Amino acid sequence: xxxxxxxxxxxxxxxxxxxxxxxxxxxxxxxxxxxxxxxxxxxxxxxxxxxxxxxxxxxxxxxxxxxxxxxxxxxxxxxxxxxxxxxxxxxxxxxxxxxxxxxxxxxxxxxxxxxxxxxxxxxxxxxxxxxxxxxxxxxxxxxxxxxxxxxxxxxxxxxxxxxxxxxxxxxxxxxxxxxxxxxxxxxxxxxxxxxxxxxxxxxxxxxxxxxxxxxxxxxxxxxxxxxxxxxxxxxxxxxxxxxxxxxxxxxxxxxxxxxxxxxxxxxxxxxxxxxxxxxxxxx
Amino acid sequence: xxxxxxxxxxxxxxxxxxxxxxxxxxxxxxxxxxxxxxxxxxxxxxxxxxxxxxxxxxxxxxxxxxxxxxxxxxxxxxxxxxxxxxxxxxxxxxxxxxxxxxxxxxxxxxxxxxxxxxxxxxxxxxxxxxxxxxxxxxxxxxxxxxxxxxxxxxxxxxxxxxxxxxxxxxxxxxxxxxxxxxxxxxxxxxxxxxxxxxxxxxxxxxxxxxxxxxxxxxxxxxxxxxxxxxxxxxxxxxxxxxxxxxxxxxxxxxxxxxxxxxxxxxxxxxxxxxxxxxxxxxxxxxxxxxxxxxxxxx
Lengths: 283, 298
Description:
The structure holds two protein chains of two kinds. By secondary structure, chain A is mainly β. Chain A has helices at residues 3-13, 115-118, and strands at residues 18-21, 39-44, 48-62, 65-79, 83-87, 90-93, 97-110, 123-138, 156-169, 172-183, 190-202, 209-221, 223-224, 227-228, 232-244, 248-260, 268-281. Chain A is globular, with a radius of gyration of 20 Å. The two termini of chain A are 38 Å apart. Chain B is mainly β. Chain B has three helices and 23 strands. In chain B, strands 11, 12, 13, 14, 15 and 16 form a six-stranded antiparallel β-sheet that branches. Chain B has a four-stranded antiparallel β-sheet with strand order 2-23-22-21, with no helix packed on it. The longest helix of chain B has 10 residues, at 2-11. Chain A binds chain B through residues 43-46, 82-83, 148, 150-153, 189, 223, 225-230, 232, 254, 258, 260, 267-275, and chain B through 7-9, 11-26, 248, 250-251, 293-298.
């Protein structure tokens, strides 16, 4: 009997086991990271349509902690150029349609007993994720030539370890998260990466929470298929209002970022100001 | 400040900062070769590169040495026009070739002013300084043989590009069995569907390059290095076959150009490390660029 099967049986037999639930004790759906697997529509400066989600398939309480394991996925369409109009009630941009597809397995370990030892409102969580991401673009539908994208970076496969903390101070709620990424050799344009996440929201009102999210990451370039890729970075901030519910939040926000674009045009460094709306599952 | 918020709400904005680049390798040297030299054509030997100008030649065995002291020039042309050609104002211009059995097979254009009269061939025996003209010659309508050549199995291949319209210069491959190198009728052109053919118009184009194209062995296949005469950008295509199947062009590097790029050939005879190419071009004198690939690029 394989260890995986034994583990599955132990989990199955666990008295507190529940299926299909929130992926994390500390949601990452509020993050300003572009890799957040949520439903998101960035209207400006470019239309970026993200269909993403993250759910725990199984949640198991384990002696003062909670183990969650599940799946996260994200499909994203982004116009290469800026938004110029609304068409069919969606923003319409210029240029090619750029695609990003990402899917991941994760194990999250909420340290339920340890958190309150730090402070009354403290929660702690560690998570390990195995992710694959690829980038594509839609070519011409009118007989035009294809584009050579061999020089563009490729995310590929990586393990992501993150540590999150949530705590309150009066009417302020804070979520901090540190992220480390280790990319598999010969499977990515990057060797490793680090990220830091901060979410601050004012929770005095039950129907509306003003919030600010800040995220910064740096990816360290590597060789892939005989080509050497430079480092990439992104610093991004969201500021807006969250409309909370038992299921999650609707976030309406202004965005500002500086750094490299995501996806198949990841060598482009720019600064943008934008506007978007997000549906985030989980609290 | 209010205006910024309004702009943000109305349209967002994108401010480009920089376009980064990935690369398949790096320039490890770009030296100006000592001496007042233009860009040479060449014959590539296993142990060195014979650099050929219209009025001189030099056998270069080391990129380090030629960068430090310049080439040891042998004054005088490798071949001279006949008295009849001289009387008719015909000049001879070497364009490159291949090496087989220690001897260099050098192709040259016969010109009267700007008019291309035809292509001839001479053989440079090992260690000699005079290229012995052969009877083989081709009219411009018969063959295009002006981009050097290689040996591929039992056949010598010679590459050539000819301008047919503004900014269009298709490049084709001619080949001859090694035991018939002196027979002009043995030089056929390659067609990707029907193989070796006699009619030049049956040739398949493997590239479209106004500037130089140098084909050379690389790992278990072939490289075609080309240079854009307008931008000074060097590009490379890979193929598993010397006669066809060269893929998309991958950019190597760019050099500053005033006017048009002159030269731009790769010298396989100078490779001492298999992933380092050596290329020459002329701008403020002759430059030798050494470019090292990072790995097995696609």
